[in-house]
Amino acid sequence: MSRNNPFCLSFGKEPDRYVERVDAYNQITETFESDSPSSNCYLIMGVRGSGKTVLLSTIANEYRNNKKWVVVSLNPGRSLLEMLAAGLYENADLQKLFVEKSLNLSRFGIGINLKEVPPISDIQIALEKMIKVVNDKGIRVLITIDDVTKSDEVISFASAFQDFISRRLDVFLLMTGLYENIYMLQRDKRCTFLLRAEKIIMKPLNIIGMKNQYRQTFQCTDEEALKMAVFTKGYSYAFQVLGYIMWENDCSLQEAVPEFDERMSGYCYEKIWDDLSDKEKEIITLLSENGKMKAKDIADKIGVTAKTYSVQRDRLIKKGIIDGSEHGVIKLALPRFEEFVMVNNIEIL
Questions:
Q1: Which residue has the higher pLDDT, 327 or 285?
Q2: Which of 104, 179, 206, 295 could lock onto 117 through a cystine, CB 3.0 to 4.6 A?
Q3: CA-CA distance, 99 to 348, in Å (whole number)?
Q4: How far is 170 from 140, CA to CA, in rounded Å?
Q5: Burial class for 221, CB neighbours closer than 10 Å (0-12, 13-18, 19+)
Q6: Are 56 and 15 a contacting pair, CB within 8 Å?
Q7: 38 with 31: CB under 8 angstroms?
Q8: By C-alpha distance, which of 311, 264, 312, 261 is closest to 286?
Q9: Whole-angstrom Cα distance, residue 254 to residue 262?
Q10: Is the pLDDT of residue 162 over 90?
Q11: pLDDT confidence of residue 112
């Protein structure tokens, strides 16, 4: 086959072949574009490789091409408020507006020093004025933060954003993160507004959508394409990895499995496993050995009460690692994760 592989192994990059998350996309954009938005913030949560960054990027790129929006992407490891101010100012059209309104931002290393106007000394006040200028021109501000974790910078930014909302500014926030990282951020008393923020939990990709993408790419039968789609369990990164391997090697699904296991282990599963607690690892190990299991059987095996097990179960579902959609039982949600767990436990022993 051609070397132009339509699948991608890089996290966050929008590949040529992917399955759109229409429901999530529409929910976010319809809310943000409403005349009276019900929420100015969306949190996109999911396991590593579930497509969080691709969804965020798709929306951000769409708005970058819309003159009624300005988009600023922030790095959670840096000074977020100063990055936001710099991101707004680097827009040539907005620069003119800030100068016309005599905003002296020189104290933050931005723009020119207007000697006749004293510089603004507080970054939050400066941003409030900047956003107000932008809004007065009928332009809304979208801020995106990918892979957020709890830190002093993120907490400071979240507090400022909450203040912007209370002042009725047209500013919107789209953040992605692992469930456990966003949970820790929400628990901080300075970020309580995030508890009320709308949440998108990344669900498995649509099986029919995956089947159609595979069939179009490999020119195979519906039956073959469906087997490939089912094999991935709707896990976004697995959809890309399987397609990538089969394209590169021009091989069958069965022939792709060994390399699939190797790549998923090194690129994804090892990190997912390392992030689990000891009790979570016990539950995952039991599921790897037994397949579907009932709640009582798992609680008895790991020696906890039904209430404690219920908390663990809920966390693993929200993390995207187990599937609780079938009444009374749970099973692993990630493709061939049981093989990884069994091999990993053998190596540890």
A1: 285
A2: 104
A3: 63
A4: 5
A5: exposed
A6: no
A7: yes
A8: 312
A9: 14
A10: yes
A11: 63
Which pair of structure tokens corresponds to residue 9? 């192994």
What is the extent of the structural domain holding 252? 207-258
How far is residue 323's CA from residue 345's CA, in Å, rounded to a whole number? 22
Q: Which is it for strands 329-332 and 293-294: parallel, antiparallel or unpaired? A: antiparallel
pLDDT tens-place string over residues 229-244: 999 999 999 999 999 9
Q: Which amino acid is at 105?
A: L
Please provide the size of the chain in residues.
Answer: 349
Tell me the pLDDT tens digit for each residue of 199-214: 999 999 999 999 999 9
Burial 26-59 (b: 16+ CB within 10 A, else e): eebeebbeeeebebbbbbbbbbbbbbbbbbbbbb
Tell me how many domains the chain contains.
Answer: 3
Helix (H, G, I), strand (E, B) or coil at 206: coil
Q: Which two tokens stand for residue 208?
A: 């029919």
Distance from C-alpha of 165 to C-alpha of 162, rounded to nearest angstrom: 5
Half-sphere CA count of 162, side-chain side, radius 13 A: 16
Residue-level pLDDT at 114: 61
**Per-residue pLDDT tens for 244-268?**
999 999 999 999 999 999 999 999 9
Residue where a domain stops, chosen among 201, 218, 249 = 201
193 and 84 in a common domain: yes
Do 182 and 111 fall into the same domain? yes
In whole angstroms, how far apart are CA 55 and each of 44, 61, 154, 201, 349?
9, 10, 21, 12, 40
Residues 52 and 178 in one domain: yes
- Would you call 75 helix, strand, or coil by DSSP? coil
Task: Judge if 56 and 178 occupy the same domain.
Answer: yes
Hunting for tokens 């954003």 — which residue is that?
161
Q: Which residues contact 59 (CB under 8 A, 6 or more apart)?
A: 25, 28, 29, 142, 144, 174
> CA-based angle 229:174:17, to the nearest 5?
25
Q: How far is CA 42 from CA 160, 175, 307, in A?
A: 16, 6, 30
- Shared domain check, 291 and 227: no
